[in-house]
Amino acid sequence: MDIANIQGYAYVFALAFLVIVLYAYIYHLYKNRKNADGTDYEEYSNMALHDDLSDTPVADRYDVKKK
Amino acid sequence: MFHWLEKNPFLFAVGVFLVIAFAGLITLLPSFAQASRPVIGTTPYSTLELAGRHVYIKNSCNACHSQLVRPFKSETDRYGDYSLSGEYAYDRPFLWGSKRTGPDLHRVGNYRTTKWHENHMMDPKALVPGSIMPGYKWMFTNLVDIDTAYAEQITIESFFGVPYNKPVPMKDGTTKIVKMGKTLNEANSLALAEAKLVAADMKNQNVKDMIAKGQIPEIVAIIAYMNSLK
Amino acid sequence: MENRPLEYDYTVAKWFMWSTIILGIVGMSVGVFIAFELAFPSLNTVLGEGLSEYTAFGRLRPLHTDAVAFGFTVSGIFATWYYVGQRVLKVSMAESKFLMTLGKLHFILYILGVAAAVITLLMGYTTSKEYAEFEWPVDIAIVVVWVMWGVSIFGLIGIRREKSLYISVWYYIATFLGVAMLYLFNNMEIPTYFASGGHGDIMHSVSAYAGTNDALVQWWYGHNAVAFVFTVPIIAMIYYFLPKESGQAIYSYKLSLLSFWGLMFVYLWAGGHHLLFSTVPDWVQTMGSVFSIVLILPSWGSAINMLLTLKGEWQQVASSPLVKFLLLASTFYMFSTLEGPVQAVKSVNAIAHFTDWIPGHVHDGTLGWVGFMIIASIFHMAPRIYKREIYSKSLMTAQFWTQTLGIVFYFTSMWIAGITQGMMWRAHDEYGNLAYSFMDTVAVIHPYMILRGIGGTLFLIGVFMWAYNIYKTMSARPVEESELHSATPMGA
Predict the structure, then answer these.
(1) Inter-chain CB proximity A3 and B30 less than 8 Å
(2) How far is it, in rounded angstroms, from Cα B183 to Cα B187?
């Protein structure tokens, strides 16, 4: 099997893998919203809308109780 | 499952890098070994031609002139045979250009003469009415930089094995040797000898005087380069 | 020391804001000048024969492209990063002495790099590779400046309060990584002075790639420089400034995440469309064509997301000139990400390649999308940096219409010129001979070259109006913090 063949197979398998990852990612984005304690990604918009230093972060990095 | 993406900047950066590097790996690497073999008849640039190529680059001639004849009838009618990959084997950098404000020059050596270039570079409008190309009068007085061309020859010979002082096969079955000086002095005299041949076809007295004094103006080098484009 | 509440520190953002404005004026002035050189060639010797070496089109063209790409746009990217970065990570640069010093040093080295680039380009030191013309010493300076920016980004992220990274930060990180990768690989070159043992010009270098390979690497770079300088960081800007200015949440944050990965994956494949019908392998060309079409999806994903963010708030477009800029920027983004793929179709490319339609397309994107977005970003930032209202709303509106008209002049004239050229080059008469000489095509596009110059001039006038407006904002009416929450306050 020459290098071009190996590349061909590598390309196809990599693409198939990425497609699976993509759909898993989409599932992840939408599934989380439905859980009570899951992340609603739409809330992330607030990182721009409420971005004063005194505003509460969407998820505080130093807040250990929450997670 | 994917929460690390937004929360771990390092892993995120690695992920992004893999995704953007993937295409480069697939599209760039495979063809590298194949594409740089010269076709029969392609020779390395001589010292003077290479110096002329530097003048071409210095003034960004490639901003307005392409060096790539595409395989269409209209292009081969206008400019000559369509370009082959191997013809560019010694082009570092490539000079295909991306815009034809002026015509393609990949085969300009086939249909323009030293005399034509001399007049044209001095005042393009005098030869081509309506031309929007500016004149390049300073090339008739600026001295060309042979030292740098020689330095590049040494570099490409030692790093990339460009065949200087070696027989190169030609289309008619013969071979040709492109000489490169062993010392800077020898390189200078080789360039001057070639420059004399070009200048013999020119009429500008100032250029002839400079050549007689052993100086090579930029115009002689760039014409030698353009004559080599065939 | 008095105990003042912690505030965002915009010092570095302010410096880069001014370099954006000044380098924008420089780069676009050169652009307008060389545009008129194509219409009126006598301008090539406008400073006399003696200086014509430095005023000729060829010498100035790289100066124009590099000044607007690496001067105006990259300054704008840095300025907005040093502003947006702090805010969405909820951390002030004042909290870290190291980051503050690094940021200032970053600016100073950047300006020195720009000066070196301008001088060397004027002297004729160029590698000839488009948007990578700088010779190796300048390349090294650029790499150092870029690494400093990277340290700035990750340093600020390291001390952030907000746990998750906002989508704009994603795009800034991608910009940093993408440009670093592309720039390093395309500028692989050997300085001949050292390689030859001390011969010739110390500035000179030779490309590590030859011929077709060099072309492949260059257009992998050239195309993706457009991606990671003119697209990715500009999306970073609009995902912050549009929601913030309009007070509206992003229409779909999830769509913005999906488009991000789509864009990252697809963009890099499309470079081959610059090399259609050339001597690169056919499959690379076809791949470039196909992926260019696929690229419409993630591009429009972002663009539609931006437009829909204004859903229910369309009256803001009428009432605020700043929202007008933002809206037209997204519209031009949609427009040029459709135009590009069309040009990448092989049969269209056969006509369009090498013609004025290509610079026409580039300017749709750079004037309409990049230019408007950076202008809008700075209009939003300046009042917050100076805590004053924008000096004049009516001047801003006038600027908007002047520049929009300029862009319309620009792209319509370049479309006509480009397609005319392309059709005339390929036309044969009834006997199978070429129907037109090359000079015929030069003559026929002359009026469009003039129109293009006028379009560019209008845009440049707008840039001067912008600079004046920002300058006067420094001494306009002071405003309270509460007025700066969303819509930018503007004086009459």
Answers:
(1) yes
(2) 6
